[in-house]
Amino acid sequence: MKRYYVYILKCSDNSYYTGVTNDIEKRIQYHIEGINPNSYTYSRRPVELVFHTEFKDVNQAIAFEKQVKGWSRKKKEAIINNEWEKLPNLSKRRKPNT
Q1: In this structure, what CATH number is given to the domain that contains residue 29?
Q2: Which in 14, 25, 56, 64 has the greatest CB count within 10 A?
């Protein structure tokens, strides 16, 4: 059975990159080596794998990747730190100052 992974890399500029793959070791090595000069991580190397999770269904993996890409930095850091319980509060809209 094939496995799919959603992963987050921390880049040298302190930004995060989220991706999906079916071969995490090979994909991370591509990021480290800078195979594609047009990729987001190419000029932000070195990169560090800070999070990954596994899926058995490619559609679920792609959906989760898209979801995470839309998240705030704080939400990404919550899952990186295995603090999933913080996600609901981080999802609430902040009240504007009146």
Answers
A1: 3.40.1440.10
A2: 64
| pLDDT for 79 beyond 60 | yes
On whether residue 17 sits in a domain, the answer given is yes
Domain with 18, as residue range(s), is 4-71
Measured CA to CA, the distance from residue 96 to residue 54 in angstroms comes to 37
Q: Render pLDDT for 45-77 as a digit per residue (tens, 0 to 9).
A: 999 999 999 999 999 999 999 999 999 999 999
DSSP 8-state code for residue 90: H
Q: With a threshold of 0.70, does the pTM exceed it?
A: yes
